[in-house]
């Protein structure tokens, strides 16, 4: 891997490259060199050395973000490497740190921070296997419980129970690992390794179980809460959550589809929405809000105006916003702070072009990520889109899948995109002229893959040539037909698939029963 390394780091790589040699000599290594050796071992995937470094960690804290991020000795950022070998070695090393019989006064470790790791699609490590967020949750929970059982059965040095190490982690809980995580959280006060949940993601979980486990995580310490997909949270449940628990540090909130649906609102629902919005403003510090597929027509101001902190990220994709909603967004104090914005599923160009341009203009100085999928952007709207994007000189990511654009329009747009200096990632649609004549948008899943693949490849090559000729090889352009990579979904897709099959089967059985009864 070509990267800037200091002579110290190169020496560290040489030292750890022979695992047997390094492990025998760790006892003589200066304490301030442990972070250097850890990153070198991680880079070379020396699992045994990583294990021993963590088992004998001499410092007060162990912070993955700082250890793996860019340093003066090695500029390569390894925080996006979730290598299975390396992370397993870290966690087993942490377990053995507790069990290591060395005298307690030598054990200085107080805080382990595992939250700085980012899950990505492609692993550059040799093993090519990742340990995702769900698996990290599973393994840490198991280690904590196994530690307790082992210490109680062997009755080792009782002073071991005086070890108190806070382990900061982003938990990911589904039906499959729920019982294990619950047990680990219930018993954490007795365990030397104390799980401290900083971010919590829940998927495929019954509401009753969600409410129980969220209490155990200590909501007052949560900074990020993601409730997604198969957690059947509705507005009355959300109000109950906010009325019974406090989230004073919460900065990021993601809600499942259809949590809010104004089409069936009553006067009681209106009061409920006001209460939810007030709670969000009073007891949270939200800077990120994601409410995809909720029906919010005419209620965006009611939902967002009580917030006291400006939003940096807003996902209102497929929320059926109207002109009043868009006008509020464009004029609100949030607009000047939005770094990431998803307006997918709204016909921006025909219904409210001037308001959309105003919103882009107000957010242009900070906007880094913009998603406009299925927004009915056509060839006649390209000049308007270019006008809106021109001030967005900090834009790094632009996604506009599902729009009926021709090959020619895409080439025109790409020529402009080359001028955005920080742009790194573009997700563009299959050109309209690659699909059969008469295709209607938005395209349903069954028709999505029925297009002229050879013609698409030719167009994609021409678009990449435009980037190449503008010396923009740094820009990645792709067409992920079924959406961007989602590490969490990828990791739990088998469980999700089984759940969907089960739900479909239950629905069929109910339908069959109702037919028989009639």
Brief synopsis:
It comes from Tricholaema leucomelas (pied barbet). The chain is an alpha/beta fold and 518 residues long. The protein has 21 helices and 13 strands.
Describe the structure.
The chain has 518 residues and is of the alpha/beta class. Among the domains are: 125 residues, no CATH class; 30 residues. It is 43% helix and 10% strand. It has a 13-stranded parallel beta sheet with strand order 1-2-3-4-5-6-7-8-9-10-11-12-13. Helix 10 runs parallel beside helix 11. The radius of gyration is 26 Å and the shape is globular. The N and C termini lie far apart (69 Å).
Secondary structure layout plus pairing:
Layout: H1 7-17, H2 19-25, H3 34-43, H4 47-55, E1 61-63, H5 64-68, H6 84-99, E2 111-113, H7 133-154, E3 165-173, H8 178-186, E4 193-202, H9 207-216, E5 224-227, H10 235-244, E6 252-254, H11 267-283, E7 288-290, H12 300-304, E8 313-315, H13 323-331, E9 340-342, H14 348-351, H15 353-363, E10 369-371, H16 382-389, E11 397-399, H17 407-417, E12 425-427, H18 445-448, H19 453-469, E13 476-478, H20 487-491, H21 493-517
Parallel strand pairs: 1-2, 2-3, 3-4, 4-5, 5-6, 6-7, 7-8, 8-9, 9-10, 10-11, 11-12, 12-13
Helix pairs in contact: 1-3, 2-4, 3-4, 4-6, 6-7, 7-8, 10-11, 13-15, 15-16, 17-19
């Amino acid at each position: 891997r070509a990267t800037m390394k200091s002579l110290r780091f190169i020496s560290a790589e040489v030292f750890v490259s022979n695992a047997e040699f390094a492990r025998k000599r760790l006892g003589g290594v200066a304490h301030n060199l442990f972070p250097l050796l850890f990153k070198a071992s991680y880079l070379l995937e020396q699992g045994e050395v990583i294990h021993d470094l963590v088992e004998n960690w001499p410092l007060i804290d162990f912070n993955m973000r700082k250890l793996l991020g860019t340093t003066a000795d090695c500029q390569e950022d390894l925080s996006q490497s979730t290598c299975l070998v390396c992370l397993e070695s870290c966690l087993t090393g942490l377990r053995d740190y507790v069990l290591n019989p060395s005298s307690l006064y030598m054990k200085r470790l107080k805080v382990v921070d595992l939250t700085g790791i980012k899950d990505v699609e492609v692993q550059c490590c040799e093993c090519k296997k990742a340990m995702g967020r769900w698996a990290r949750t599973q393994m840490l929970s198991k280690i904590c419980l196994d530690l307790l059982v082992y210490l109680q059965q062997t009755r080792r040095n009782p002073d071991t129970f005086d070890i108190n190490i806070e382990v900061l982690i982003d938990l990911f809980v589904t039906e499959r690992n729920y019982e294990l995580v619950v047990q680990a959280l219930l018993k954490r006060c007795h365990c030397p390794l104390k799980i401290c949940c900083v971010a919590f993601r829940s998927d495929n979980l019954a509401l009753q179980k969600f409410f129980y486990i969220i209490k155990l995580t200590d909501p007052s310490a949560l900074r990020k809460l993601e409730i997604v997909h198969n957690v059947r949270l509705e507005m009355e449940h959300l109000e109950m959550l906010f009325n019974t628990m406090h989230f004073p540090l919460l900065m990021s909130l993601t809600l499942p589809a259809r949590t809010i649906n104004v089409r069936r609102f009553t006067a009681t629902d209106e009061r409920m929405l006001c209460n939810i919005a007030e709670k969000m403003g009073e007891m949270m510090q939200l800077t990120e809000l994601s409410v995809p597929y909720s029906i919010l027509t005419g209620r965006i101001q009611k939902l967002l105006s009580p917030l006291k902190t400006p939003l940096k990220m807003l996902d209102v994709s497929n929320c059926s916003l109207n002109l009043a909603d868009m006008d509020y967004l464009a004029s609100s104090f949030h607009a000047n702070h939005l770094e990431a914005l998803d307006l997918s599923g709204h016909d921006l160009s025909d219904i409210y072009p001037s308001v959309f341009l105003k919103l882009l203009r107000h957010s242009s100085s900070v906007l880094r990520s913009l998603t406009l999928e299925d927004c009915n952007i056509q060839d006649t709207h390209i000049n308007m889109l270019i006008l809106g994007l021109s001030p967005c000189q900090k834009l790094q990511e632009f996604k506009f899948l599902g729009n009926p654009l021709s090959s020619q329009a895409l080439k025109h747009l790409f020529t402009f995109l080359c001028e955005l200096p920080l742009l790194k990632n573009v997700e563009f649609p299959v050109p309209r002229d690659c699909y059969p004549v008469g295709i209607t948008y938005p395209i349903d899943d069954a028709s999505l893959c029925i297009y002229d693949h050879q013609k698409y490849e030719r167009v994609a090559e021409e678009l990449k040539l435009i980037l190449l000729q503008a010396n923009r090889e740094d820009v990645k352009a792709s067409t992920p037909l079924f959406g961007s990579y989602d590490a969490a979904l990828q990791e739990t897709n088998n469980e999700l698939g089984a759940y969907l099959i089960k739900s479909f089967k239950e629905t069929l059985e109910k339908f069959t029963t109702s037919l028989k009864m009639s």
